[in-house]
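Researcher: Let's do a round of design. I'm pasting the structure tokens now; please hold your answer until I've finished.
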């Protein structure tokens, strides 16, 4: 009679393991971030831009401000961020010559997740981690670009950077920064930006990926110009 009992015990153990796996899967489905869609062409309200004109990096006393209009899903923007921007940051921003101003310019017609990425960065700013997530999003651009649920991936990255994921996920679901992103796009369009990346330096637009050396030369030439 011992053998049947042992077999029965094993049956219940297997059944319990299957049940636990099912519960774990259910918990994961409930807790994982849902797909997020950030609306485009929304009406920009005063509150969307009040006290905000871009993501700034560098000293407030820097002589020159450089504005970058970029799209998180744009491969050229990713190349600039990962290959050139570290040198730009070390040579021009950290030294106090330049204050960097990042502006979202989402190209929705070709990049399905660009606004979701921009919104993720905005949600990270709420927790004082904008530039950390900004860099991580670009570093992992190939991983999330064609994802059906990029918000879930951004949530995981945010968690790895020490952000409160619950707060981050709630921010993403709210789409509260859709107007801010739209305002940034409209600003660039008014200035004549039509592709990414585009840099505004001394009142002139420079299109495409510029090397850190090319940017330095443009900036130094701009700084030498007499003030009107």
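Researcher: That's everything. Go ahead.
Model: Designed sequence:
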């Amino acid at each position: 009679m011992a053998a049947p009992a042992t077999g029965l015990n094993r049956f219940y153990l297997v059944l319990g393991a299957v049940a636990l796996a099912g519960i774990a899967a259910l918990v994961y489905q409930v807790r994982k971030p849902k797909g997020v869609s950030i609306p485009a062409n929304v009406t920009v309200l005063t509150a969307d831009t009040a006290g905000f004109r871009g993501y700034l990096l560098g000293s407030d006393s820097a002589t020159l401000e450089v504005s970058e209009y970029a799209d998180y899903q744009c491969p050229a923007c990713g190349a600039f961020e990962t290959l050139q921007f570290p040198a730009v940051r070390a040579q021009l921003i950290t030294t106090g010559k330049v204050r960097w101003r990042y502006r979202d310019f989402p190209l929705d017609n070709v990049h399905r997740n660009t606004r979701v990425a921009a919104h993720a960065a905005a949600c990270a700013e709420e927790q004082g981690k904008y530039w950390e997530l900004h860099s991580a999003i670009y570093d992992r651009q190939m991983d999330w670009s064609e994802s059906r649920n990029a918000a879930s991936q951004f949530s995981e990255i945010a968690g790895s950077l020490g952000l409160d994921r619950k707060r981050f996920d709630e921010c993403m679901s709210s789409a509260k920064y859709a107007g801010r992103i739209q305002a940034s796009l409209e600003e660039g369009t008014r200035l004549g930006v039509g592709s990414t990346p585009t840099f505004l330096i001394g009142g002139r637009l420079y299109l495409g990926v510029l090397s850190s050396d090319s940017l330095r030369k443009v900036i130094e030439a701009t700084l030498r110009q007499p003030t009107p």
